[in-house]
Design goal:
By secondary structure, the protein is of the alpha+beta class. The chain has helices at 10-20, 26-39, 93-107, 122-130, and strands spanning 2-4, 44-51, 54-64, 76-84, 113-114.
Protein backbone atom coordinates (compact mmCIF):
# COMPACT_ATOMS: atom_id res chain seq x y z
CA UNK A 1 0.00 0.00 0.00
CA UNK A 2 1.28 3.46 -0.91
CA UNK A 3 0.16 6.37 1.24
CA UNK A 4 1.31 9.85 2.26
CA UNK A 5 3.84 9.68 5.10
CA UNK A 6 3.12 11.33 8.43
CA UNK A 7 5.26 12.29 11.40
CA UNK A 8 4.44 8.84 12.82
CA UNK A 9 6.58 7.44 9.96
CA UNK A 10 9.59 9.62 10.81
CA UNK A 11 11.86 6.83 12.10
CA UNK A 12 11.19 4.66 9.06
CA UNK A 13 11.57 7.53 6.59
CA UNK A 14 14.81 8.64 8.26
CA UNK A 15 16.20 5.11 7.92
CA UNK A 16 15.15 4.84 4.28
CA UNK A 17 16.66 8.25 3.50
CA UNK A 18 19.93 7.19 5.13
CA UNK A 19 19.96 4.04 3.00
CA UNK A 20 19.40 6.11 -0.16
CA UNK A 21 21.97 8.78 0.68
CA UNK A 22 24.59 6.93 2.79
CA UNK A 23 27.21 9.66 2.41
CA UNK A 24 25.01 12.21 4.15
CA UNK A 25 24.65 12.82 7.87
CA UNK A 26 21.90 10.61 9.31
CA UNK A 27 20.98 13.38 11.73
CA UNK A 28 20.66 15.94 8.93
CA UNK A 29 18.59 13.56 6.80
CA UNK A 30 16.27 12.92 9.74
CA UNK A 31 15.94 16.64 10.47
CA UNK A 32 15.09 17.35 6.81
CA UNK A 33 12.46 14.61 6.82
CA UNK A 34 10.96 15.88 10.06
CA UNK A 35 10.80 19.44 8.76
CA UNK A 36 9.20 18.31 5.51
CA UNK A 37 6.62 16.10 7.21
CA UNK A 38 5.72 18.81 9.73
CA UNK A 39 5.61 21.69 7.24
CA UNK A 40 2.32 21.00 5.53
CA UNK A 41 3.88 22.50 2.39
CA UNK A 42 1.57 21.53 -0.49
CA UNK A 43 4.53 21.66 -2.91
CA UNK A 44 6.18 18.65 -1.22
CA UNK A 45 5.10 15.09 -0.51
CA UNK A 46 6.68 12.06 1.06
CA UNK A 47 5.05 8.81 0.06
CA UNK A 48 5.62 5.57 1.94
CA UNK A 49 5.17 1.98 0.80
CA UNK A 50 3.87 -0.22 3.61
CA UNK A 51 3.80 -4.01 3.50
CA UNK A 52 2.72 -6.05 6.51
CA UNK A 53 2.76 -2.96 8.70
CA UNK A 54 6.39 -2.20 7.79
CA UNK A 55 7.66 0.76 5.76
CA UNK A 56 9.57 -0.88 2.91
CA UNK A 57 10.09 2.08 0.58
CA UNK A 58 9.54 5.77 0.12
CA UNK A 59 9.49 8.49 -2.48
CA UNK A 60 9.84 12.23 -2.13
CA UNK A 61 8.24 14.41 -4.78
CA UNK A 62 8.14 18.17 -5.18
CA UNK A 63 6.44 20.69 -7.39
CA UNK A 64 9.05 22.62 -9.36
CA UNK A 65 8.22 25.86 -11.13
CA UNK A 66 11.75 26.70 -12.25
CA UNK A 67 13.31 25.18 -15.35
CA UNK A 68 13.60 21.39 -15.17
CA UNK A 69 16.09 19.84 -17.62
CA UNK A 70 14.38 18.02 -20.47
CA UNK A 71 10.86 19.17 -19.61
CA UNK A 72 8.51 21.24 -21.73
CA UNK A 73 5.82 22.25 -19.23
CA UNK A 74 5.49 24.04 -15.93
CA UNK A 75 4.94 23.14 -13.17
CA UNK A 76 6.72 19.79 -13.12
CA UNK A 77 6.40 17.08 -10.49
CA UNK A 78 9.96 16.09 -9.59
CA UNK A 79 10.94 12.79 -8.02
CA UNK A 80 13.55 14.00 -5.53
CA UNK A 81 14.36 10.57 -4.16
CA UNK A 82 13.07 7.01 -4.17
CA UNK A 83 14.26 3.92 -2.34
CA UNK A 84 12.95 0.43 -1.72
CA UNK A 85 14.67 -1.84 0.79
CA UNK A 86 16.74 -4.42 -1.12
CA UNK A 87 14.79 -7.39 0.25
CA UNK A 88 11.55 -5.87 -1.09
CA UNK A 89 12.76 -5.07 -4.59
CA UNK A 90 11.43 -6.71 -7.75
CA UNK A 91 7.89 -6.69 -6.36
CA UNK A 92 6.67 -3.58 -8.27
CA UNK A 93 6.90 -1.39 -5.15
CA UNK A 94 9.20 1.11 -6.84
CA UNK A 95 6.88 1.37 -9.82
CA UNK A 96 3.92 1.84 -7.49
CA UNK A 97 5.77 4.66 -5.74
CA UNK A 98 6.53 6.29 -9.11
CA UNK A 99 2.87 5.99 -10.12
CA UNK A 100 1.77 7.52 -6.80
CA UNK A 101 4.23 10.39 -7.37
CA UNK A 102 2.87 10.80 -10.91
CA UNK A 103 -0.71 10.92 -9.60
CA UNK A 104 0.33 13.47 -6.98
CA UNK A 105 1.69 15.59 -9.84
CA UNK A 106 -1.41 15.12 -11.99
CA UNK A 107 -3.56 16.22 -9.05
CA UNK A 108 -1.57 19.48 -9.05
CA UNK A 109 -1.90 20.13 -12.76
CA UNK A 110 1.42 18.68 -13.88
CA UNK A 111 1.80 17.02 -17.25
CA UNK A 112 5.33 15.72 -16.61
CA UNK A 113 7.15 13.82 -13.88
CA UNK A 114 10.90 14.32 -13.92
CA UNK A 115 13.80 12.84 -12.03
CA UNK A 116 17.56 12.59 -12.23
CA UNK A 117 20.35 10.18 -11.40
CA UNK A 118 24.11 10.28 -11.36
CA UNK A 119 25.69 9.08 -14.60
CA UNK A 120 27.50 6.23 -12.86
CA UNK A 121 24.42 4.96 -10.97
CA UNK A 122 23.59 2.11 -13.34
CA UNK A 123 20.93 0.63 -11.04
CA UNK A 124 19.06 3.93 -10.87
CA UNK A 125 19.31 4.43 -14.63
CA UNK A 126 17.85 0.94 -15.21
CA UNK A 127 15.10 1.54 -12.65
CA UNK A 128 14.06 4.83 -14.23
CA UNK A 129 13.84 3.21 -17.67
CA UNK A 130 11.83 0.28 -16.31
CA UNK A 131 9.50 2.69 -14.50
CA UNK A 132 8.63 4.44 -17.76
CA UNK A 133 10.95 7.43 -17.69
CA UNK A 134 12.69 8.45 -20.90
CA UNK A 135 16.18 9.88 -20.81
CA UNK A 136 16.15 13.47 -22.06
CA UNK A 137 19.74 14.60 -21.70
CA UNK A 138 23.04 14.04 -19.93
CA UNK A 139 24.85 16.86 -18.24
CA UNK A 140 28.08 17.44 -16.37
CA UNK A 141 27.92 20.23 -13.80
CA UNK A 142 30.82 22.53 -12.95
CA UNK A 143 31.61 25.09 -10.31
CA UNK A 144 34.37 27.55 -9.53
CA UNK A 145 34.98 28.58 -5.95
CA UNK A 146 35.08 32.33 -5.44
Amino acid sequence: MIRPATLADLDAIAGLRSALWPGESAEALRAEAEASLASGDARLATLVAVEGGEAVGFAEVSLRTDYVNGCETCPVAFLEGIHVRPEWRRRAIGRALVEAAAQWGRDRGCRELASDALLDNAASLRFHGAAGFEETERVVCFRKRL
